[in-house]
Amino acid sequence: MAQCGDKPKRIAFGVAPLGIISIGIVPMGVVSIGVVPMGVISIGAVAMGVINASVVGMGVLIAGVNVMGVWWVGLEGMGPYRLGGSAGRVHHHHEHHGAKPNLYAYPSKQVALEKAKELGCEGVHAMGSLWMPCREHPDP
Length: 140
Hints:
Elements: E1 9-15, E2 18-25, E3 28-34, E4 38-78, E5 81-82, H1 109-119, E6 124-127, E7 130-133
Parallel strand pairs: 1-2, 2-3, 3-4, 4-5
Antiparallel strand pairs: 6-7
């Protein structure tokens, strides 16, 4: 296990390995592969880094199942640019047992206003850098 102040190895394996290339459980390095990798390029179950391929990921360029980033590809995600999918469907709320419709966030305020009219509500509200239809955020 790496200790605070340890010099990174070129290739590190194990629990919390610290290296240029790190492989293991909670690897930390430039290229990290493992269960919870943290690095510039991270590949694993729950990844944090600039470029990620993971089940759950957070970073700048992400591919995975449930992700948050600037550019992302995945089943569920959040961020301004979805690659390979509908640009408007960036953030949504699932329908629950009630009759409330799914509401989506859009990069354009005008598109959100048009959707609000379709839904029968007034106005829009900001969701980060995106816009959602209806003046108020729906309760889950």
